[in-house]
């Protein structure tokens, strides 16, 4: 049985995975290039909200989890799992530089008999066409000397409903034996492991899941803007449609899809099919709608400010890409903030999970939600609905609220509330 694991990339995906194995008694070597993360792990200080200091600390103290930037530790493990970022570059095409760099650092140290699994989200063909040649550079052959597979990560940061191990785990291998090795490893820690026939099928499954979300999030956002025009409450209509027991899945209006996955992965698919002269018009339209949402919200707010818009004081509440995570990558709230500054507004923000942030070279500090700060704002925009926001207090003291998440549902009061998709109320 495999007992020693290396996890490459200790971010939102890699650290929970490393802890899952270490808590099951595996000896896990975490590898990252970010020295701050390595230091945090060593002192048992978690940088992820879903992981407590206590859990991290106890795994480090027990000796089951260690962290380093030294790739040579992989020579001593049975399996290596790669969880490095797969973003888009400035031209909005796949940037596999992190994966390529990890592959190049790994091939110096990999050993016969090891199982290597890629978990980063990527386009079909990456495991075989990009990673495999890098790992084989020193002469070992995938499928013969070592085993190679792909398993998409399906973690949903901030979601307490589905524990990591309870999310069914898809696996694949470049040969049947490789798939069996990956299956054997993951079935020791995950409740359910599902094998698909190829690494390409597993890679594309992840892109399908996230593209499905992207298209539906974008559609429901467009629907919200239509409802504003029709003066019908989109939230009521979505809830009503959700009473149908089949054929309808609820999606809710928001400032847009954000994070490292949903707005990124569909463009990996789009890029891949472009090689064959094809494209998905759903992905194209979704990207257009997604990009338009922050401007739509800013314009809605602008229409409500009767004093001098250029001197308007706007407080944005919740700037992460979704509730209860401390991740601002691709966050639509940040785009709202950028547009407000471009319009010349005086910008402030509050986020209980992000104490400071830099936007176009200017650093902002999260301000406290005091009576005065709320009352001073010409408009408060609730962009992200963190569970810990004092909603009643905000409604009581703000003079105008634009609620892009329907967090104020059911509340009335002195504050004037406009909701995205609320049909003008
Ligand atoms: N965040 C999510 O919710 C989520 C969910 C499912 C899948 N994914 C996918 O998982 C992958 C990782 O995403 P993430 O959110 O954990 O990213 P992240 O940025 O939080 O973490 C990645 C880590 O990899 C490290 N790293 C980069 N290059 C490295 C290298 N060459 N060697 C060692 N470490 C390296 C970085 O320093 C960072 O700590 C991506 O492909 C992403 O699309 C993410």
Which key phrases capture this entry?
single chain; alpha/beta; 8-stranded mixed β-sheet; Rossmann fold; 5-stranded parallel β-sheet; 15% strand; 425 residues
Explain the overall architecture.
The structure is a single chain. The protein has helices spanning 14-23, 35-42, 53-61, 97-106, 126-135, 176-186, 199-230, 234-241, 265-274, 281-302, 332-342, 371-376, 391-397; strands at residues 4-8, 27-31, 65-68, 79-82, 115-118, 147-150, 169-173, 193-195, 313-317, 346-350, 356-359, 362-365, 379-382, 400-403, 416-419. The longest helix has 32 residues, at 199-230. The protein is of the alpha/beta class and 425 residues long. It has 13 helices and 15 strands. It has two domains: 4-197, Rossmann fold, CATH 3.40.50; 230-425, NAD(P)-binding Rossmann-like Domain (Rossmann fold, 3-Layer(aba) Sandwich). The mean pLDDT is 96. Strands 3-2-1-4-5-6-7-8 form an eight-stranded mixed β-sheet. A five-stranded parallel β-sheet has the order 10-9-13-14-15. Strands 11-12 form a two-stranded antiparallel ribbon. Bound molecules: nicotinamide-adenine-dinucleotide. Nicotinamide-adenine-dinucleotide binds next to helix 4.
